[in-house]
Amino acid sequence: MKKLLAALLLLPLAGLSASAQTPDPAAGKTLWEGNNTQCRNCHGKDGEGAFGPDLAGRGLSASEFQQAVRKPWGVMPAFLDTQISDADIANLAAYFASLQKVATPGPWRFTAADTMPHGQQVFHNVGCAQCHGQTFDMPRGTLGGVNADFNLFKSIVYTHTTTMPQVDESLADGPPPPANGNRPPLRMGNFVPTRVAESQLKDIYDWARDDIGFRPLLQGRLSQPVADANGATYTLNLANNGLKGKGLEADGLTVDLVIPAGLTVVSTTGDGYKGVHMDAQAKGNVAEWTLPKLAAKDKRAYTITLSKAASATDNLKGSIRWTKPAPKTGPNLDVQNINPPAPPRPAP
Ligand code: HEC
Ligand code: HEC
Question: How far is residue 87's CA from residue 84's CA, in Å, rounded to a whole number?
Fold first, then answer.
């Protein structure tokens, strides 16, 4: 009797684990709106359609949805189950089934203009600009950091899920992350060569390298302030994170820190300090250093002591600009932002 009871008690449990697999529209919504996917850049914030078709209320089944994601019909990149699982896809299908169908699909996030160079137009028309913006800023930095040839570029696009981790690893300073480390899923899919042709990628590559130009892989990191009787001292670590002997060198650098309202500069360290001036664009005082060049793997450290620590709402931040490399045509709008210091880590 006891045994039978135990067996009976197990039955509903088995039923429960099956029902844990039933699609969950709320989980689909969370996935769609979160940081682990960027599908919405092409399909709209609420699946209302944009570069890609509207999904809301279209009634696509989980298997139709899965087919479209794993073996896309057209220019959409393919996503692996390491990026988005079958259960994720079923949840998304359930989420969109729960929404109203839209009357008219939404607009593209970014559209090409006739005045753009040819490669930049292709970059828009095959979908890259929907995630990377009109000027491809972040990848141009990574590409400059490894001075990528066309073959590497092509691999990043067609076999993104295998090539991207290798590129990241080659650029990482310390030891490689553990094989099963909790690396966030890659959000770009693998583009399919029969849909986005190699010649189109070549046009994009030529524009990125020779026209608007690759960028040096620069980084500026501000430390938390250290307070003493003189004020609050911040360290700014400036680095060119490109591959040694390969990454692009930056020439003619200007490093600006915007001084929060009401604070003054007590002292600074580091070569090339130019003092403080009023900057119309930053709408405030700016402390400035210049540096003739920074080659791949070179670093500099600067410090600045302010009359007191800045607040979280008007925090110290800044920018790095350089004169070379520069776009061959058009204005030089390239800038690398220096973010405010990251909040201190909670004690373990
Ligand atoms: C670069 C833009 C782009 C991205 C990113 C993208 N899609 Fe698409 N999607 C498209 C386009 C364009 C189509 C039309 C068919 C094609 O090109 O494969 C499409 C088609 C679809 C369809 C089929 C719609 C139908 O009417 O049959 C589904 C479902 C879908 N995408 C889901 C997703 C999901 C989920 C993601 C993220 C993991 C995603 N898409 C990312 C552009 C994109
Ligand atoms: C769904 C959004 C999305 C689309 C569409 C997309 N990318 Fe990406 N791309 C990313 C993200 C996010 C990364 C960073 C790695 C990751 O999470 O996959 C990346 C990384 C890259 C990189 C590596 C450099 C770096 O900074 O990490 C290159 C090169 C690149 N993309 C080129 C392209 C090209 C060319 C296209 C169009 C054929 C394209 N991407 C379309 C989102 C996208």
Answer: 8
Q: Are strands 250-258 and 284-294 parallel, antiparallel or unpaired?
A: antiparallel
Domain 218-338 classification at class level: mainly beta
133 CA → ligand 1 middle, Å: 18
Q: What is the pTM of this model?
A: 0.91
Cβ burial 189-200 (10 Å sphere, 16+ → b, else e): bbbeeeebeeeb
Q: Which of these ranges, 3-7, 64-68, 122-126, 192-196, has the smallest mean pLDDT? A: 3-7
Amino acid in the structure at residue 154: K
- As a whole number of angstroms, the distance between CA 315 and CA 309 comes to 9
What is the dotted CATH code of the domain comprising 20-97? 1.10.760.10
Pocket flag, ligand 1, residue 130 (CB < 6 Å): yes
> Could you read off the pLDDT of 111-131 as tens digits, one per residue?
999 999 999 999 999 999 999
Q: Domain locations in the chain? A: 20-97, 118-172+186-211, 218-338
Nearest to 89 by CA among 78, 102, 73, 105: 78
80: Cβ below 6 Å to ligand 1? no
Ligand 2 pocket: which of 40, 45, 131, 149 to mutate (most atoms within 8 A of CB): 131
